[in-house]
Each structure stands twice: as structure tokens, then as C-alpha cells.
Amino acid sequence: MATLRQRALDWIYRRPEAQAWALLGPGAFWLLAFFLVPILIMFVYSVMPRGIYGGVDRGFTLEHYARFFDPLYLEVLERTFLWSIACTVICLLLGYPVAYVIVRAGRWRNLLLFLVILPFWTSFLVRTFAMIFLMRDTGLINNWLLKLGIIDQSLTILYTPFAVMIGLVYGFLPFMVLPIYASLEKLDLSLLEAAEVLGARPSARFRRVTLPLSMPGVVAGCLLVFIPALGSFLTSDLLGGAKEMMIGNLVQNQFSAARNWPFGSAASFIVMALVLAAVMIYLRVKDQTPGGSALK
Amino acid sequence: MNERIPRWLIAVAALVYLFLHLPILVLVVFSFNSSKFSVDWTGFTLQWYYRLLQRPDILRGLKVSLIVGAAATVISAVLGTLIALALARHRFRGRRAFEGFLYVPIVTPEIVVGISLLILFALFKFPLGITTITIAHVAFCISFVVVVVLARLEGMDDNLEEAALILGADEITTFWKITVPQLWPGILAGALLAFTMSFDDFVITSFVSGSGSSTLPIVVYSMVRKNVEPSINAISTIILMVTAVLIYLADRLVRER
Question: Domains of chain B: which residue ranges?
């Protein structure tokens, strides 16, 4: 027994590649079989004709992609894109100051950081429900505004684009703060000292030292907000009502009520393509920013 | 160097923290409010929590969530740790490409993962249920485990392993007696995060769960769709507590050196 074990060890010890693949194998298989292959199948579905009973028929067609030139769907794409960009910009404007304050918060730093990490991991569904609880017609905001006499009739907040935007920002803000914090934390303080000694005023120190060096975090944060916003459907589903769809709602619809799987696959693949494009842009920017290489 | 933070910046940050946490706080407080329909405070009660215990759908959902969560956590913790070991300790062809590929599941929108798995299971006529939910959860948890364990491995001292080998321990003994104990906080943190993600996931699960296998978030979603009632505040509070405890523990483990 011992010799067999020894021989097996010797065999694998002489082959470092085999050793690596033995460790990687099970996990790599899982990701291949249940992540990569399904996405490839989804792509194949998106170029096949729609089947009568909800699946697909044999053949090749681009009709599902062509449908996105229909004004109805073009509008969905445009709305998704604009809302995701708006959400990203708002998150950046709110998130940067927070990251900046955390880095300089001294002994409060760990607590403040934890208070951003917590919502990052908290159930998105529960957080979206919290928004409903506040914003609905008989919700807390309306109740208090009525009591204080600021309004004399409930405001319609829920089921408006405004509510969706609030929900998106609320949902994805932590995704912006954390990467910016990470790059600000690594910032070499002696650079700021040097700038001060050389006579740079605080605003100039921020603009010419801190900001450029935190660019990798900013770009990563923007990506981490933009991508889930692009693919979100829970927020627009629960806070926007059924009125103004985002592409995520369109996809979900095709796989439930409409039962048009190939069209849903095409919509989903468009999301995936946009995501990959965003990642490519991120990698290029990261290589080009002055801080990019220094911070790696 | 004394870099003062401008007042207005602190004000902005304070408002953002309020925005992030006040809605959740309000939600929790009103889970103890005795009025069913109004958002006026009418007195303290635990009745909404008792109500939860009487709802079979909630209890079944919790059971499914716990089974799936436990299975997905164990599988993804093991597979993720093995991948991290391979990446940290071995040079092999395609290593960089594989490392890049690991990040793709993290940035892929959940809806894409959900429907592509639905298509896969439908294509192979695999019945939807606890198994398919677990498969899906492992698929999106592995990468997170790898990231956390890899971070731990990179900060680890490998002199101890060398010493063990020189002193005559074989590879397997060294692995169990030296590597695993040192790595343990990283594995545990990864596992806690995996469980949290599994326990909280709604979007992907909604596509791959069959009619008899609703997880807790699926049940909560259908409650929210129907109408807003205090029981939702109560179950939300419980979910929040579970998450908060797990994340607090994971956070401590990650910082431990």
C-alpha cells in the first residue's frame, strides 16, 4: 500500500503540469460545463428559428437580432443604455467622496469600510423591498410628508423612472466605493507631500496627484456599476412596474410569458456583448492610465 | 502629513451612509410594528415573526435555501481552493488565460447566467429542482472563493512547507498538516461568502428552480409581488441578520494575518 502511494506520488511529482491540472480539473470542468458551454448554446439558440412549442427549430436566421431595429425594442436598448450610464455617473459622484473620506478616517476606517461592504453583500431583493416600503403611495415618505403638511396628497414616487434610478443607485453604489477605496489606499502619501512642498494647493494636489493615481479604481468602479445596471431586471421590475422595460425585463419576459426563447437569447447575448466590450475598454484604459502600471 | 478633509466632503459621505443604511433600518424597525396596514408606529409586537412560523411556504423555502446553500458552499469551497492552489503554486500553459477566464463569471450579469443555464437544462431534459439550483450556485460561487483563497495564499509563508518536506514529511502529509491549517481562514472566508451569495440569490435561482423547489428569496419575491405586508419586513430582517453575521465573520477572517 505504502509503495503504491509512493509510486503515485513519484509519478505526479515528476509531472508538474499534470499536478496543476489535477488540482484545476474539477473546478475548470464545472465552469466550462455550467458557465461557458451554456452561454455558447445560448448564442446558438439566438440564431435559430423559433419553435412552435417554445423551443427552437432547426435552421439559421438573424431575424431575432433584426428585431432590435424595431423602434419598440430600439427604445428598450436606448433606455437601458442611458439609465445605466446615468446610474454610473451618479454613483461615481457620490461614491468618490465616500472612498476619499474612508481612507482618511483614521480609527473609524475599518467601521466605515465595513458599512460599505455590508450592503455590497446584502440581498438585493431585500434592499429593493426596502425602497418599496419607503416609496409606495402609502409608504413612509408620503406618510411623513403628509403629516408635516408639506404635501396634501400622496406623491406618486413608486413605478416611475425616478424610482428605478434611485433603486439602481442604491443597489450598486457600494460597487463603486470599494474599488476606488482600494486604489486610494495604495496611494503613496510621499507624492502628496512632495506636491505640497513644491507649492501645490490642495485642489491642485487632488487634481494632479490623487485623481490620476486613483483612475484605475474609478474605471473599475464604473465598470462594476455599469455592468450589473445593464443586466438588471429586479429593480425595474419591482420599482418601475411593468411600464418602462429595461433589456433585462425583455429577456425575462421572453423566457416566461412570451415563450420566445431564441429572441430572449438574442437579447441576452446583446447584454453579454456589451459587457465584454466594457471589459475590453477597461483593460485598455487600465494599461494607458499613468497610475495603472504603478498600482498593479 | 496632515491632509484635512474638507467639511463638505464629510457631509456628502454622511448623507451617502444615511442613504445606504436608513432604508434597511426603517425596514427592520417596522417589522416590530403592530399595525398591519399603516406605517404609523402603533406599538411593539413579535406577531409578524410568529406568523412566519405558520407559513408552510416560508418554512419550505428556508429548508430548500439551507440545503442548497450548504451543498453549494462545500462544493465551491473545495473546487475553488484547489484552483487557487494550482494558480499559486504551479506554472502551466494557459495559466494567465485561465486566471482571466475566472473573472468572467464575476462580471457576467446574472440574467445571462440564469437563462443560459435554463436553456442547458431544458436541452438535456434535466428536471429543474434542488440539483439544478445547486449546480447554478456553485457555478457563480467558485470564482469568488478562488479570489479570496488566492489572496491568502499569496500572503502565506511557504518556508514552513519547505521545512516539513526537508524534515521528511511527504507531500500529502505536508499539505494536510502545514498548508491547510495556514490556509484555513481564507477557505472559511470564501465559504462564508459563497453561502451568503447562495442564500441571497434571486435572479439566477428564479430561472433554474422548478415549481416545487422555491428557495427563500423566490418565496419572498412572490410575497412582494402580491402586496406589502409586515411579514415581509420580518423575513427580510431575518435574511439581513444572517447576512450581516456571515459577512462580519468573513471580514474578520480576511483581515486576520
Answer: 1-45, 49-255
Quick check: B171 contacting A, CB < 8 Å? yes
- CB contacts under 8 A, B 148-167 vs A, are none
Q: For residue A288, what pLDDT is reported?
A: 67
Question: Contacts of residue B208 in chain A, CB cutoff 8 Å?
Answer: none
A129 touches chain B (CB under 8 A): yes
Considering A35-39, B101-105, B247-251, the range whose residues carry the highest mean pLDDT is: A35-39
By C-alpha distance, the chain B residue nearest A191 is B1
| Residue A204, CA distances (Å) to A192, A196, A216 in order | 10, 9, 20
Length of chain B: 257
Domains and CATH numbers, chain A: 71-294 (1.10.3720.10)
Window 133-162 of A, Cβ < 8 Å to B? 133-134, 136, 138-140, 143
The correct CATH number of B49-255 out of 3.40.50.2300, 1.10.3720.10, 1.10.1200.30, 1.20.58.1000 is: 1.10.3720.10
Q: Which residues fall within 8 angstroms of residue B178, CB to CB, at 6 or more apart? A: B160, B161, B164, B169
- What's the whole-number average pLDDT of chain B? 90
**Chain segment A75-115, per-residue pLDDT in tens:** 999 999 999 999 999 999 999 999 999 998 888 999 999 99
Rounded distance, CA B52 to CA B31, Å?
A: 12
| B120 chain-A contacts, CB cut-off 8 A | 34, 37-38, 41
Q: Which residues contact B187 (CB under 8 A, 6 or more apart)?
A: B77, B81, B145, B149, B152, B180
Quote ipTM for the complex: 0.89
Question: What's the pTM value of the predicted model, to 2 decimals?
Answer: 0.89
pLDDT 10s digits, A142-167: 888 888 888 888 888 889 999 999 99
